[in-house]
Amino acid sequence: MTSAITQEQPPQRPRGGSPDDAPEEAGVREEEYLYRDESRLRAGSQLTSRTMARRLPSLVRRSVRMAWQVDRGATVGLLVCQIGTGVLAALGLLAVTGTITALVASGDITERLWDAAPQLAVIAAAAGLRALLGIAVVWLTGRLRPVLGRAAELTMIEAALGAELAANNKPGYNDAYDIADRGAQVTPDLVEEAQDVLAATATLAAGATVLTVLHPLLLPLLLLACLPQAAAYVRSARVIYLAGLETSGRRRMLSKLRWHMAYMESSEEMRACLAGPFLTGRYRKLAATVNAAERRAANTGAWMGLAGAAAGGVASIAVWAALLWLLASERMDLAAGGGAVFALQTATGSVRGIISGGARLVRTGWYVQDWQNFLDNAHGQAMTDSRGTASPAAAPQRFEVRDATYR
User: Fold this and answer.
1) pLDDT tens digit string along 186-208?
2) For the chain, is the Cβ count within 10 Å smaller at the N or the C terminus?
3) How many angstroms separate the CA atoms of 197 and 365, rounded?
4) Residue 248's domain spans which residues?
5) How far is CA 173 from the centre of its chain?
6) Global pTM?
7) pLDDT of 370-404, one tens digit each?
8) Parallel, antiparallel, or unpaired for β 32-36 and 2-6?
9) Does 403 reside within a domain?
10) Which residues, including other chains, have CB under 8 Å from residue 343's CB and lie 6 or more apart?
């Protein structure tokens, strides 16, 4: 990790000119805090679908552990809701298959409707209960988010206050604090995104169970069809995260400029020195570079998503063609085929939810890891508490310090 601070005198702009028109002289550039965490850049550039799949379980465990520390009741409630959602999804899909079987059977239509009535009741009950569980998930997540965010911020502040004063003068320490602050802010997102992945996984398990029961060939075909979109989501997440790291120094400088231009401590100097137009000009230039980098990342991610969607569409056609072949060759009866249609739709949505949610979870996990890295760094430079525990019997009359040094 390297960090450098360059402070040079800005070029003088022509009288009457705009601060944005200031000439850039040779060897002179505007003040900028440069931050490049090479380890995070390497990790982000090497992210693949395989590494994402390996990281997801540990990130989910970490999010559950963090949520458990701040609100055990809400954590247990969320886990129960996700398990219940998966069970209800499986029951609903099996009931759909039973309904179609009853409707396409031979006999009087009235009798077939009566035979399908219990299955229809199961479908309605499962849908209603899943809706209630969804409301409970929103409520429990709303309970966790603010508490978890404040806890992450307080942990970081306590670690910073407990570090030696000399740590602030070490290269990269203050930059790492600013990067870690982003991690503290997105800590609630880690839990919410992990919950989304768990919900999609539970629904996928239900759909996969039904597909396997109907015909074992459908499940591997479905997973293969979702691989192109998985690769696109992962690459998009990588591009956006790397863009955030590349612009972190400029965003830190923007924050410092906002502080100096808006707060009371420096307001008199801003007006007395007529520094407002100059600083706003610098702010516009820095903001333009950050906006350009973020726009490039967004465009690249969109093109990757488009390519993944196109490839996924072609693969989905192959899946539906396989289903039609199974029906045409009588390897699957009509009722099972109808149930397979609903199961495929459910499983396809779940796989895409896991892929998109997993990519977001991995990206958020990087930010949270930056937060954890700062905590480890600060704890490694913590002040040594050598104070005694005895209390004086009376108020001291004289304070004396010997052999004191300052580093």
Assistant:
1) 888 888 888 888 888 888 887 78
2) C
3) 13
4) 50-380
5) 24
6) 0.65
7) 888 888 888 888 877 666 667 767 777 788 888 88
8) antiparallel
9) no
10) 93, 207, 210, 211, 214, 218
